[in-house]
Amino acid sequence: MPTPAPAMPPLPQDVEQFLTWMNDQKGFSPATISAYRTDLLQFEEWLHREQHSLARPGELEKYHFQDYSAHLFHEGQARSSIGRKLSALRSLFRYLMKMKKIDKNPAKLVRNPKRELRHPTALNVDQMFTLLDEASVESGGAAGLDGSRQAEQAVTDREHAGHTRDLALAELLYGSGLRISEALDLDVDDVDPASGFIRVMGKGSKERIAPLSDTSVRALFLWLRVRALIAPPAEKALFVGNRGKRLNRRQAARILDEIRKSAGLPQHLSPHTLRHTFATHMLENGADMRSVQELLGHASLSTTQRYTHITLDHLMRVYDKAHPRSSVRGKSGEEGEDV
Asked: What positions carry a catalytic annotation?
């Protein structure tokens, strides 16, 4: 019988104190702290195999972090994920320096791997409307995109109430460009559809006001009207699952993928696809980058600029189709080639 691997020790006390400090002093969200904990546990597990530990941070050298980065790369981790894990380690070691637990910080000497250029995927307008139309049909036409009153028929059972919720969620993600975490964190008291706006708590506990589309307003009104068929009176969450508890990410992803399948759309989509699509369609229709940055709640303009590749592709397709002198691209075989 093979010898069992040694049990993983818990995170050292100094690391737990660092995570508490992040919560109490820095105001990081529970999701961020959970991600840091996972990253630090993974590093501690790797150190454990190398006969080291975060309980003895003063023993670590620059090469330990470089070796760990190489280990992650050979495991097939994305460069962005490796960079995030190294960032967590740098934050920890800055804290240890601040608290005088160590007298040198080898983590600060380690650079992130160069990030691969990954462009967000987005649905085109026809695909997006097909998705929303399908969600509207499944909800009994409750808030059809044409705004017809026939759609506002009473929803009398839990299944139809669930479909009405699904439509409201899809309309909100696309209509306002919310992160899925922002949408699922909403409480009923955060929402006043009649105002045309919604109050959102974004990353870093930064509040912003997001506008609501007309179809989002109708869908939210319908969902609020039937929400009590699923949600118990004491539940504050805006979006609840079929058991009456706050909807989680996995449930939301499954809901949207089921709508995609029913709509006959070929590509897999996630809740984040709708946020990407919101940004892409805004830019394609003339919105300026700074405004889209504010609508998305991006702290950095460089994050929003990832979408320019997509919109430039769109502009080139329009140009190639419409401009008389664009025959070099896309019009081969037609008269008037450049000579």
From this structure: 179, 203, 272, 275, 298, 307
